[in-house]
Amino acid sequence: MAFTFAIVGRPNVGKSTLFNKLVGRKLALVHDTPGVTRDRRVADASVGALSFRVIDTAGFEEDAPDALSTRMTGQTVTAIAEADACLFVVDGRVGVTAGDEIIAAALRKANKPVILVANKCESQASDIGYAEAFTLGFGEPVAISAEHSMGFGALEEALARYVRPDAVADDEGVAEPLEDGDEDMEEDVPLDRPIRLAIVGRPNVGKSSLFNQLLGEERTLTGPEAGITRDAIAAPWVVDGHEFLLHDTAGLRRKARTAGHTLEEMSVASTLEAIQFADCVLVMLDATQAFEKQDLTIADLIAREGRAIVFVVNKWDLVDNRGGMISELREKLDRLLPQVVGAPLIAISAQTGEGIGRILPAIRDAVAAWNKRVGTAALNRFLEQALQRHAPPAISGRRVKVRYMTQVKARPPTFALFGNQLKALPDDYVRYLTNGLRETFALKGTPIRFLMRGGKNPFADK
User: Fold this and answer.
1) Which residues contact 277 (CB under 8 A, 6 or more apart)?
2) Domains, in order of start, for the chain
3) For the segment 33-67, what is each residue's pLDDT rounded down to a tens digit?
């Protein structure tokens, strides 16, 4: 396990900016608004020859016991307990405040090594604040400017007291960009990395509650307030020998409601990035308001991104008349979202844990379909039977000829049709072939794509 530093400090002192600089990419949201970071985020980092792990945390504030800021502080306290040492960040331009004194007392009580970092020291205006930092009792502060990448040589020297130059951070819990699918992947061949899962949905449908329920700990903040989660948070999830990288995401509201709100637009962008990097997406629905327009928009977005999809109906414990409701929801799903007909649909209560055990089998089925590769011979037997049952319609009096079909890639399954005038095929005929492929080759729960090709059959001589 890599040596771990928790970055702690008051709101808006530049903790997330420092976190992003150490990680080497913009993982955490950064905005002028205080309190943007609410949940702790873990990632591998490096400075010079040093490799280690860092935890970005929320600001440290005292408030009423049930207040959101108090719950955020609880996440920070957990991060301090998990870390081997702490990077205590203060604002060099502001100097030491009462909030800094409170954090200093908490760090002394935690009895963890502390490196004091005076951020925003890019000008002479920080000289007084830098001098005041000595009064906190953690030795000489390291003067840096995370935004301008200044002072990182001195920071490396301070970190080197705890991290050996040859230390290598393991890659558990790091969200690297998803590479394009391997076109030669055969059916049932496992991915060579943890399966990436993203939990998405409208605000306040229970995404963070499910995230915590799956992990078995209060990893992210939950509560009655809508929009608590602002940033996509990743955490490793291992169950029954299967490794996953689970992403909790911010709620996706209608575009009109986020336009002009920079912070909300950044939160939406973080969620969209998590979807793009995912292998499978869990779409959370509210059992009391399932398949609203925004739910359909989200599901269509995931289908266009080509991700495996599982629908999770939450708040099942609030439903009084359950008889026949799953069948009704299934009918709505297949009617309103024909692009993902047959996708897994399960009912749960993230609050009570009811139905949670059905999530893993649904994920496995969806990912298996998403990875599936079908042989060309089997595809052309299917195509021949499909053409016999229902021939393509004539276009301008000229018959459309579909000669053969082959699968060109998986993740998602993508098929090439060869023939003449194929681009003129009506959408309902393409849907007929799509539904036939789903039923014949167990491709439910994954988008299916078609490429229309003309020209000579390259297999004619074989």
Assistant:
1) 175, 177, 178, 196, 198
2) 4-159 (3.40.50.300), 195-371 (3.40.50.300), 376-453 (3.30.300.20)
3) 555 565 678 889 999 889 999 998 877 766 545 55
